[in-house]
Amino acid sequence: MNRTTLSLFAGTAALAAVTAFAAAAPPPASGAAPRAAARLPVERTSLVCPAPSGSDLAETTYTSFTPVTKGAASGGGARLQAAGAQDAGGGKGRKAGKPVLTPKAPGSPATGDTSGGDAPALVGTADGSLAPGWTVQETTEVSAGTGRGLLGVACAGADTDFWFPGASTAAGRTDYVHLTNPDDSAAVVDIELYGKDGEIKAPLGENLTVDPGTSEAILLPTLTEERQAGLTVHVSVRGGRVGAAVQALDDKAGGDWLAPAAEPAGSLVLPGIPKDATDVRLIAFTPGDDDADLKIRLASPDGLITPAGNETVHVKAGMTASVGLGDVTRGEPGSLVLTPADQAVPVVAGLQVERGKGDKRETAFIPATAAVGTRATAAGNGAKDTTLALTAPGGTATVKVTASAGSEGGTPATKTYTIKSGTTQDVDAPVPTGLKGTYALTVEPVSGGPVHASRTLTGAGTAFTVQTLPTDHGLVSVPQTEEDLSIVQK
């Protein structure tokens, strides 16, 4: 298979996650200035959650939350259930299924649980007032065995193009690509692998069919005889669309989910390395035809610094580069900022992060992520196990953070923070007054430069998981019209 450059479908990412209705505006009259597009709440959102750990010792919790959105449609509902289960419209040929979780009204989290090793992938749809910014968190605790620890992932919309830097086929790692098709027609998928020497032959990853309403977990070592750590996995969809995530399980260092990295870009931000990280590894890949030279800088609480001995990284075209950064944060929170050393070349990147040492090591992954944009939310937080990291790689930014009510009670709380240019701050995030259950944190930039964010959840011992907070796509731009476009029947 020829190495793929930037996907023709990359621009559909937001549309795969959310759907809104808009009317196209006619050209403005001669001499008239075009009207700015209105920002309106979406009317329908779909999410996919991968099947959790197959361990019989796994306990998984799902948390749903929709922030209150001004101007959102009234009414509506949401439903999260097993892939292939009958939807509210009575999907033909599908078995009726009890929802795993029924979301509550905007501003109120809802939770659902499942245990054991046979839990399915989930699909869900929200409309009306529950659609704008709908967020679902899947968190699994595994008490022992391969992949022990805390595994977390934010459920995401189906799409056609995904990049996962940081996967592995090496001994001691068991990595699965989870593909879930939420639609009523089959999806055809290719899985490509790129290592330190370029594309790895994996003919069994070509032309895979994912049937309607089903989920497949593809074990990476079954696709190739190559055994390499630090791989980049590219999932591209020839027909249809899927939800995709990589589950990485290590015999000795726990495990977690790899969420898709941000689309290839010349500059990237990887936010929220925990201050007690004991080992950090950068994995980067360029899908184009040109090599990339990147400056590596750490956005620390005091500003941008260059890690000694790791000032730059050279990423050869079509090859995955892996750079060990050790305990780069030196006891302080930080975020990695990658910028072109010369000309800008699109790159994808991710971090493999460990806490603890020896037999007490645990692993999580931080993908390069887009800025928060208008708003982003992380659900499933606890009073004592949550750390919110905010990064302002450019200009100083003012950020509002709101803690929702608790899933079982509590009053929302809000705080505002100033994040200085070039810094990362682990902020003292608000907690609902009288909290019972879990709650959601919603991040909204108020002024200044772009903000990148991530949330870390911690469990027993060194167990942890990190989710980044890109924009929630709760609002879409709708062109405004100067004319009445209604159809009059004569």
Account of the protein in words:
Strands 10, 12, 13, 14 and 16 form a five-stranded antiparallel sheet that branches. Strands 19, 21, 22, 23 and 25 form a five-stranded antiparallel sheet that branches. A four-stranded antiparallel sheet has the order 1-3-7-5. It has one helix at residues 13-17; strands at 18-19, 38-41, 44-49, 58-65, 78-82, 110-115, 122-127, 135-142, 149-154, 161-167, 173-180, 187-195, 198-200, 208-210, 215-219, 231-239, 243-250, 255-258, 268-273, 277-285, 292-300, 303-305, 312-315, 320-326, 334-340, 348-355, 362-367, 376-381, 386-392, 397-403, 409-411, 413-419, 423-427, 433-436, 439-448, 452-458, 464-468, 475-478. It contains one helix and 38 strands. The chain starts with 12 loop residues before the first helix and ends in a 12-residue tail after the last strand. The protein is globular and about 55 Å long. The protein is 1% helix and 47% strand. It has 490 residues and is an all-beta fold.
Keywords:
single chain; 5-stranded antiparallel β-sheet; mainly beta; about 500 residues; disordered C terminus
Shape: globular
| CA distance, first residue to last residue | 56 Å
Indicate the percent of residues in helices: under 10%
User: Count the strands?
Assistant: 38
Total helical segments: 1
Content of β-strand:
over 45%
Structural class: mainly beta
Unreliable spans: 1-30, 86-96, 484-490
Overall mean pLDDT = 89
Provide a compact summary of the structure.
With about 500 residues, the protein is mostly beta strands. It has one helix spanning about 15; strands at about 20, 40, 45-50, 60-65, 80, 110-115, 120-125, 135-140, 150-155, 160-165, 175-180, 185-195, 200, 210, 215-220, 230-240, 245-250, 255-260, 270-275, 275-285, 290-300, 305, 310-315, 320-325, 335-340, 350-355, 360-365, 375-380, 385-390, 395-405, 410, 415-420, 425, 435, 440-450, 450-460, 465-470, 475-480.
